[in-house]
Design a protein that fits this description.
Elements (H helix, E strand, L loop, with lengths): L11 H7 L17 H14 L13 H13 L2 H16 L8 E10 L8 E3 L4 E11 L4 E8 L4 H12 L8 E4 L6 H10 L2 E4 L15 H11 L13 H28 L1
Parallel strand pairs: 1-5, 5-6
Antiparallel strand pairs: 1-3, 2-3, 3-4
Helix pairs in contact: 1-8, 2-3, 2-8, 4-8, 5-6
Length: 267
């Protein structure tokens, strides 16, 4: 380990929580010699700093090794599994049920770069790039994310996201969303997912900024994304890689909250 830690590095308590969630080395072949804590620190460094994989500092494992693990865990669904495990732990630590009964839906359009991959133009936001559709619980913790071209309308993107989510959350029965999701989507959600989609509308008399019930929770989650410079734009070739980046960022945030709460409980 290097003598001086980066701000994105895992401390001992955080590593202790994450270590059991890291896949074990596959049997057979050459034994694993890579320090997995350093691999995670390198991945979180990329997320937090926004640097390219090839520009990882030399005190981390080789960038090809780090990216190999990140990519393999994306393919194997490990990032979603880590996100789910930490979310359940954090919900229970805050006196909640493991699975949510209500959630909030929203999207965020972000610019892409010259990197290859799907993209589109969101005329409403004036953004050429991709759209991050997320479903969060009432604590703002990520339930599921779907990244797609920005030209796909919110209602159509929501169908893709909710179709992906309907087999995952048995307790869920209520979803809040803004007016962009009103109309036929309400009946579609009820028919296809057996959930109630409730639209939280802004008052017609409101002027300027207004904190809206429930909707502020998902907006705060998007603000959390802003702490990770890799998410300032969509730099990834594949939407699936973008989703993995978001799951990894949320996992880093949750493990920090868990470690802080554990330390506060001891004090």
């Amino acid at each position: 380990m290097k003598d001086e830690a980066y701000p994105s590095d895992l401390d001992d308590a955080e590593w202790e929580m994450l270590e059991p969630l890291i896949p074990k080395a596959k049997p057979g072949g050459r034994p694993r010699t890579t320090n997995m804590r350093l691999v995670l620190n390198a991945i979180f460094y990329v997320l937090r700093s926004g640097c390219a994989w090839r520009m990882l500092p030399h005190d981390f494992p080789p960038w090809k090794t780090v990216y190999h693990y990140f990519r393999q865990w994306r393919i194997d669904g490990v990032w979603e599994q880590i996100n789910e495990a930490l979310r359940i732990q954090l919900r229970k630590a805050n006196g909640r049920e493991a699975e949510p009964s209500a959630a909030i839906l929203d999207s965020q359009s972000v610019k892409t770069t010259e990197t290859k991959g799907i993209r589109g133009y969101d005329a409403a936001k004036g953004v050429k790039g991709r759209k991050r559709h997320i479903l969060v619980d009432t604590m703002g913790l990520l339930l599921i994310v779907l990244v797609h071209a920005a030209n796909i309308q919110d209602r159509d993107g929501a169908k893709l996201l909710l179709a992906k989510a309907r087999q995952c959350f048995s307790r869920l029965h209520l979803i809040w969303a803004d007016a962009a999701y009103s109309g036929k989507l309400i009946s579609w959600v009820l028919t296809n997912c057996s959930w109630v989609l409730e639209i939280v509308k802004r008052s017609d008399d409101a002027k300027g900024f207004q904190v809206l019930p429930r909707r502020w929770v998902v907006e705060r989650t998007f603000a959390w994304f802003g702490r990770y410079r890799r998410l300032s734009k969509d730099y990834e070739t594949l939407p699936e890689t973008s989703e993995a980046i978001i799951y990894a960022a949320m996992s880093r945030l949750m493990v920090r909250h868990l470690a802080y709460q554990a330390q506060a409980a001891v004090v």
